[in-house]
Write a structure and sequence with these properties.
seven-stranded parallel β-sheet, 9 strands, globular, alpha/beta, two-stranded antiparallel ribbon
């Protein structure tokens, strides 16, 4: 049974590259209606992009493209899990913990947060809750999740978010070690100045704290920081892998194999790495599987290769969640 247990309906910032990406996401669905690259095709593409922008990410038309792609790929469970930083209500949470001072990099992070925090968390929850039945009628399970950024000292806010809504799964992540966001493009020069050994040490320290907090059902992209800045020799990281695997096992928490990390970066490696994955299997840590899609054409991408890698690492099943209860499905 195929699943894709971590996709996003939206991910900014809203640059020209983002607009091109949205058009590319719409293209496979429009090619079925018009001859490719004809004037009619171009008109339909522009109309589709205008509708996408006008309706926003939490619209039936946009979500239906995810459903169509999932059916085409034979996927029967899809979990949408948006980043908490997308929601305006929680921008103050990030501004308390992320460095947003008056220096150039601080201003860049403040600007990035303003660009990302555009939507309403209650509206997101209500939208997905309303769409579940339509997906079920089509033979697919739509799961509702949230991806929560962990900061030491921010536990009360995350506890409130996780308890306030009927989530199927709460995912934990560390995107801002030391208050600096590795997904923020304008902050890349900061990471280039940090010694890899110190960066990875501080990152895994915070990751372990996040696990020990017990706030999450699954920790996602465990070594995702490797895509942003220099990576040390992996042999030096093995003690960290062992620490994280032991902590996950101790807290009975799942990890994630995120196939999306092969997109847009030179590593051509999933997150976590194969060696990390083997250590998780040795410690019998449950594993979820995701494409980390940010547009409908990416749903299911690279998951056949990811399933094969899971088997090679020693996994026989993937974890899925409903009402924050975990179950397992045999790897197809």
């Amino acid at each position: 049974m195929k699943v894709d247990f971590h996709v996003h309906l939206e991910e900014g910032p809203y640059s020209l590259d983002w607009l091109v990406g949205q058009a590319c996401a719409l293209r496979p669905f429009l090619d079925e209606k018009e001859e490719s690259e004809s004037r009619g095709w171009a008109n339909e593409l522009v109309k589709g992009l205008a509708q996408r922008l006008q309706n926003g990410p939490y619209s039936r038309e946009w979500l239906d493209l995810y459903r169509a792609r999932a059916k085409q790929a034979g996927i029967v469970q899809v979990c949408v899990a948006e980043h908490l930083y997308r929601f305006a209500e929680y921008r103050p949470y990030y501004e308390r913990h992320v460095r947003v001072g008056d220096d150039r990099l601080g201003r860049a992070q403040r600007r990035w947060l303003a660009q990302m925090a555009n939507d309403s968390l209650p509206a997101y929850v209500a939208f997905l809750a309303e769409e579940r039945e339509r997906w079920a009628e089509d033979g697919l399970a739509l799961r509702m999740g949230i991806e929560l950024d962990y900061f030491p000292g921010g536990e009360d806010v995350l506890r409130e978010v996780s308890g306030q809504y009927p989530w199927d799964v709460c995912m934990g992540a560390v995107h801002f070690p030391g208050g600096w966001g590795f997904p923020v493009r304008d902050v890349q020069e900061h990471w280039e100045r940090v010694a890899p050994a110190g960066l990875y040490s501080s990152y895994f320290d915070v990751l372990e704290q996040a696990i020990e907090s017990g706030l999450f059902d699954v920790m996602v992209h465990l070594d995702g920081i490797k895509a942003f800045g220099p990576k040390p020799d992996e042999t030096a990281l093995l003690p960290y892998y062992q620490r994280i695997a032991r902590a996950l096992r101790r807290k009975d928490m799942a990890a994630e194999l995120n196939a999306g990390y092969v997109r847009g970066q030179s590593l051509r490696e999933f997150s976590p790495s194969f060696r990390f994955l083997q250590i998780l299997a040795q410690h019998e840590v449950p594993i979820t599987l995701s494409s980390h899609a940010t547009a409908p054409d990416q749903v299911g991408q690279h998951l056949a290769e990811a399933r094969a890698q899971l088997k090679r690492a020693g996994f026989a099943a993937v974890a899925v969640f409903a009402d924050r209860k975990r179950s397992e499905l045999a790897i197809g």
